Amino acid sequence: MTEAIFRDSEADLAFRARRLTGKTVIYVLLIAWAIICLFPIYWTATTSFKIAPNVMQGHLIPWVDYQPAWRGWRSLGLSPDTIGAESTVRAEFMKRFFNSAIAAVASSAIAVVLGSLAAYGLSRFSYKFGFMRNSDISFFFLSQLILPPVVLALPFLVLYKQLALLDTRIGLVLLYTLTVLPIVIWIMRDQFESIPTELEEAALVDGLSIWGAFFSVILPIALPGMMAAFILSLVLTWNEYFFAALLTSTHANTLPVMVASQTGSQGINWWAMAALSFAAILPLVVIGVVLERYLIRGMTAGAVK
Amino acid sequence: MAQGDLLHVVTTDDISERQKLFGRAIVWGSALIVALVAAAQTLQQTGVEDFGFETWRPTLYAYVLWGVCLCWSQVLICGEQGKRTLFVLPAALFVVSLTVFPLLFGLVIAFSDWNLSATEGRQFNGLDNIRQMWRDPFYWNALLNMVWYSLAILVEYAIAFGLALLLNAEIRARKFFRVAFLLPLMLSPVAVSWMIGKSMLEVRFGPIARFARWLGWDSPSFFGSPEIARFTIMLLDAWTFIPFMMIMILAGLQAIPRELTEAARVDGASPWKGFWEITFPLMLPVSITAVLIRIIFKLKLADIVINLTAGGPGGATDTVTSFIFREYRDRSNVGYGTLLAMFYLVIIIIAMTILMKLADRFVRPRT
User: Fold this and answer.
1) Same structural domain for residues B106 and B199?
2) Are B246 and B139 found together in one domain?
C-alpha cells in the first residue's frame, strides 16, 4: 500500500466529521418538523378512507394496514358510486363550497382593486382630507388591522338585520373586504414604492392621463404584487369562521361553518368528518403548493426594508 | 414616507362655472335624497307614518348613490387634482362607512340592554353594563387568558427563528421543506380543530394519544385540567401560525449580506457568538414587526377555542372573542357583548400603542 502524498491532515478530517454531524442534525430537525406539519394532513386524508375498525385499531398506512374504502366520501356523495346519482348531502356540500368560494374570491378581488388604487395614490400624491395628510391616511387604513372582529361583530349583526343583509353573501363579502383591505394596502404600498416614478413621468409626457398611465404602465408591473395580495386575502377569507358563524344561518353559510356544525351533531362519524375537513382544506393546500412563491412574497412585503 | 407630490400637475385645468355648479349639485342633491329617505324611514320606524318600507335597504341604496356622486363630483369640481383624489377616495369611503358608523352605533348599543329575541327592543340602561362587567369574573379571566396566550408568542418566535435558520442553511430540497412548513398556515382553523383537536388528540384511539401512552403517559387527556387544556390550545394555534413568523424571519435572514457573517467567522467568532452578535441584532427590526403582527392576530384568536373547548374547563381556555361569542349565543344580549368588545378594543389600543412606542425606542440606533 503506497501512502498518498496529498492527504488531509488529522485536524481537517476532524473538521469534516463535525460538518457531517452538523448536516445530519439539520436534516433530522427539518424532517421532524416536516412530519409535524404534514402528518395531520396525511392523517385526515387517510382517515376519510377508513371504516370503524381501522380507526379503533389506529391503522396508519393504506393497503398495508387496512383496505381503503370509500365510506367517508360516500357520506358526502363524492365517491365513485354515488357521484352520478342525486345526493342531497352533496348538494348541501356544494352549496357551502360555492358560498365559501364566492365570498372569498369576490371579497379578495374587491379588496385588491380598492386597496391597490388607494396604495398607489398614497405612494404618489399628497392628499389633504381635512386635517389628515398622507401619513395619517395610511395610518388610518393600517390601524384597521388592530380592530378585533368582535368589536364590529355585534353592531354589524344589528345593522345587517335592519338592512336585510343577514345571511346573504353580499353581507359577508362586504365584511371580508373590510378585514383584508389593510393587509392589501400594506402589501401594495410596498410594491408601488419600489416602482420608480420616472415610468409614469415618461407616460405623462407622452400624453397619457394619470389614470391611463396607471392602467397601461404601472398595473402590468405591479401585477405580481397584486397576485400576492390576492392570494393572501384568499387564504384569510376562505378560512374565516367568526363572522360567518355569527352572520349566516341557512343560505349563505360557508364551509368552515359547515365543518363546525358537523362536529357537534354527528359525534364520532370519523370518516365523514375527515372527508369533509379534507375537502375544506384541499383548495388551499393546492394553492399553497402551486402558488407558494406569491404567498411568501405577500407575507414578506414591508417586513424587510 | 415622502410627503409632497412625486408627480406634479403641469397643465392647468379649464373648469367652467357650470361644471362646478353641476358637481356641487349632484353631491348635495344625493345627500338630500339620503336625508329624505332616512327621515321617511325614521318616521315609519317611530310609527308616525307608513311609507311601505320593509327594511332599511332604501337608505343604503341612497347612501351608495351619494358615495358615487361624491367621487364623480371630485373630478367635476377639481379636475386633475380630483382625478388623483379618486385613487384614495373609494377605499376611504368604504372603510369609513364600514367601521366608523358601526363603531358609533356600537357605542350606543354598548350602553343599552338589548335582547334581540325579545320584542321590547333597545332599552337605554346607563352604566349598568359597566357595573356588570366589573363584577363578571369570567370576562376578567378571559382577559387574563389573553395575556397568557400572548406570552406564548415568545416561544413561538423562538421556534420560528430556529426553523428559519434551518431553512437558511445550505440544504437540499429547500423548496420542499419551505412548502411543507408553510402548509399549516393555509388550513382553516376550524378544520384544524377537528383534524388535530378532535381526532388526533382523541383519548382512546387518536394517534397522538397513542404516542403519549407509548411514551409513558398512562391516561392522556388533553382537555381535562385547565393548564393542559390551555397549553393544548396554545400548541394548536402555534402550529398554524409559526409558518407566518418563520417566513418573515427567513426573508430577513436572506437580506443579511453574507460578507458580515463571513467577516465574523474569519475574525474567529464561533457560530454561537456570531449568531448573538451579528445575526440577532440585525434581525431585530424584522423580529419586532413579525411579533407585533403576530400579537394582532393572536388577539383575534377564537375559532379554535369555540370549536374545541367552548372556553372550558371552567373558562380556562376562554379568549375574549370566544367569551363574547358565547355570551351572545346563550343570551342573545347584544348590549352587554358590545360593551365587553368596546372595553377590549380600548385595552388593545392602549397596549399596542405602548408596545409600538417601546419597540420603536428599542430598535432605533442609539445616537
Assistant:
1) no
2) yes
pLDDT digits (tens, 9 = 90+) for B165-190: 999 888 888 889 989 999 998 888 88
Cβ–Cβ below 8 Å for A148 and B341: yes
Say whether B188 and A255 touch across the interface (CB within 8 A). Answer: yes
Contact of A126 with A136, CB cutoff 8 Å: no
Q: Is the pTM of this model over 0.80?
A: yes
pLDDT single digits (tens) A213-268: 889 889 999 898 899 899 989 999 998 888 888 888 888 888 888 888 876 545 56
Which chain A residues have a beta carbon less than 8 Å from that of B235?
Answer: none
> What is the residue range of B158's domain?
132-366
Asked if residues A257 and A24 have their Cβ atoms less than 8 Å apart, the reply is no
Interface membership of B224 toward A (CB under 8 Å):
no
Element spanning B146, H or E: helix B137-168
Q: Which of A137, A150, A238 sits opposite B321 (nearest CB)?
A: A150
Query: Å from A283 to nearest chain B CA?
Result: 9
pLDDT of residue A134: 83
Contact B166 A137 (CB under 8 A): no
Domain boundary among B110, B141, B159: B110
pLDDT at A174: 92
What distance, in Å, lies between the first and last C-alpha atoms of chain B? 22
Number of compact structural domains in chain B: 2
Which residue, B49, B77, B110, sits at the end of a domain? B110
Same structural domain for residues B192 and B146? yes
Hey, are the CB atoms on B56 and A284 less than 8 Å from each other?
no
Work out the widest C-alpha separation in chain B, in whole angstroms.
87
For residue B65, being part of any structural domain is answered with yes
Cell 415618461 identifies what position?
A202
Does A238 sit within 8 Å of B106, measured CB to CB?
no
Neighbours of A243 (CB within 10 A): 23
- B39 contacts chain A (CB < 8 A): no
